[in-house]
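Box 3.1 A note on notation
Throughout this textbook, protein chains are presented in two layers. The first layer is the amino acid sequence; the second is a token string describing backbone geometry. Keep the layers aligned when reading.
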Amino acid sequence: MYKNADRLALNRLEELVELDAEQERYFLTSFADFQVIHQKAYMPDYVRWLTSLEGNWRSLSQSQLRELGTDIQEHWANLSQSMNDPVTKLLVDLNAQQKEELIAALKKRAEERSKNTGRLERALERFEDILGDLSVQQRKIVEKYFDETEYYRQVWLLYSQKRINKIESLLANDKALTEQERKLLGSYIFNSMQHAPSHILRTRDQWVEKQLQLMLELRETLTSQQQEHVDEYFKKWLGVVNELIQTKL
């Protein structure tokens, strides 16, 4: 899948907007250039994080987990910045019909997410992928987390809708975008926190704290079998990432 990530990404993009042959070539070329950088510059970070978690996940404190989370957020900011120019160029160069198609698809997807259908069930499946079968007590802990964080989710959904409106406004601009407008467009596309309002930054930080508390609370309830399951989970993904680093693209 990693060797063919360019085609997979193109397929995902064309779920939102259909590209012509020239646009597809530009996307695939840009993605290939990015993937070479990703493999060499970013994959080692994934090994470092997974190695740290594999050896220390039983004892990491909340502040240590928060520091790791900050490291990962900075990684995403750097990653999205490296994709900013080709992505904004591709979107700005779409014709009027393609831009309408893209915005309509983004709005539809945002509306579907706002309905919250099956969100808890999907989360429980992800936890069981890492921990194994959950006990009744553990399921209640996860359900409680979802109840307590619904406010944050609603704030985030409203912000996402505003981001789509801003993307729409920038793409509808008949004049060539300034450098600052291109940076803004990229930040809205990748949900960069660089230009996010203060209440969104505050909401994200509070939400992260709730996530950390959830992980720590669940950790206290794990059986020996579940702990072994977590060990195997990290071991598996370390093997995957190490193999991807060696993959000839």
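The chain has a mean pLDDT of 93. The two ends are 11 Å apart (CA to CA).
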